[in-house]
Amino acid sequence: MGKSLRGGVIGAGVFGGYHARQYARLPGVALSAVLDTHPERAAQAAMPLGGRGFTDIAAFLDAVDVVTVASPATFHAEQVLAALAAGKSVYIEKPIATTVADGEKVRAAAAAKGLVVACGHQERVMFQAIGLLDVPEQPLRLEALRHGPPSERSRDVSAVLDLMVHDIDLALSISAADAVTAEGEGRLSDDGIWDLARAEVSFEDGFTAIFDVSRQAPERKRTMKLVYPSGEVEIDFMARTFRNTTPFILNAGFADTPAGVDPLGASIEGFLKAVRGEAPRPVVTADEAIRALDLALAIEQALGDPA
After folding, report:
1. Model confidence pLDDT, tens digit, residues 163-212
2. Which strand ranges, in their side-by-side order, compose the sheet holding 208-214?
3. Could you give phi then psi for residue 198, rounded to 5 degrees?
4. Which residue(s) pair with 202 in the sheet?
5. Angle 286-303/100-113 helices, nearest 10 degrees?
6. For the segment 67-83, what is each residue's pLDDT rounded down to a tens digit?
7. Do residues 237 and 222 lie in contact, with contact meaning Cβ atoms separated by under 8 Å?
8. Partners of 243 in beta bridges
9. Contacts of 34 (CB under 8 A, 6+ apart)
């Protein structure tokens, strides 16, 4: 396998902790460093896993070979570009950036240096594990619901960029067509951010995707219905179960596979394999992440002006 990679995580919040533990447990990589503006948080996330805490990004980048950016989304582009400039491949928690222009800067910087950029749309791993990316029939309709209770996390972006972008990526992964129209309605939180949103997107081949997200729900729900000409597939992402009335053979035991048990781990492992040259690409590429971001921002526009 060669020399073990030194993994670094930017952001010592909840998701940063998840990523740090993945680097500590996956083969061929070790958690080396965690960067955060709060030194005590960086140390608390890094030291139990054998790493060091940093507050200076230059020193942090000297201590790592690959980087996960798990900071608030508004900082993604700046931090990813710094890592790429230092020659480090990057795994970015979704969304890849908060503007398409910044996403394109990330893609261009990675291409110029021959580095890998992956984006953390980890539900794609679940689709792969079930077998939905191999269904030889275009879906007619997708209905996705992603609800959760109020949280202080990800308050820098709307529920569209925080939650809906997962299901947008899944819709785009099973439809080869481009979106042509987006209509939506939403509700703003007291701080002027879209916390509830419902959108309907029409694609040029007749495929329709309906997305429903809330950060004000009483409990967490993550469900999806896919309607095909030959039947339906209904997925409960939290229970890790699905119902299939199509004639296509899907993997009913996906929840017992490594990907089904740990989609984040499988997504990061795919990133590391791409970095080592053991896989041609990560699970979700920069191109795909930009396409999902572009549609998410179009849906935000369809909701109206929060001001």
Report:
1. 999 999 999 999 989 999 999 999 988 878 899 999 999 999 999 999 99
2. 179-188, 194-203, 208-214, 141-147, 221-228, 231-236, 241-244
3. -135, 130
4. 181, 208
5. 170
6. 999 999 999 999 999 99
7. yes
8. 234
9. 8, 9, 10, 12, 16, 20, 42, 43, 45, 46, 51, 52, 53, 54
